[in-house]
Amino acid sequence: MNKLMFNYHTERLDDTGNDIVLAFNELVSDFRAKKSDSKEYKEKNATFSESLAKYCIEGSGQTWTDINALKNPQLVYNTNFTTKFTTILAEMITPVVPAIVSSEYNRFFDVTHVGWGKVYRPAC
Predict the structure, then answer these.
(1) Radius of gyration of the chain, Cα coordinates, nearest whole angstrom
(2) In a 10 Å sphere around its CB, with 0-12 CB exposed, 13-18 middle and 19+ buried, how is residue 96 labelled?
(3) Is the pTM of this model over 0.90?
């Protein structure tokens, strides 16, 4: 079985994919704020799971039926599906893991562009 190597340059997310990534970040924030037992959180999680599955299935050229389509091995082992899924998974996990390890990593998320030869001085 051939293994696929993930490459950001070959696979880009569209607006729907970016919305799914943002929804995942909201779920993580709610989970860390101890809101995971609420009915609203469970509904958001179910909606997120369905939208992620739908995005990956439709992105692979298949027709969306319901979440149970993920039980079909012909779909799950489809190269287009796995490429789409690994792309969105990487986009979701990249900002979340450091934030869970330590909130000190959150300061690295802000990127400031500094001109050539200039020294960055934060406004404190």
Answers:
(1) 18
(2) middle
(3) no
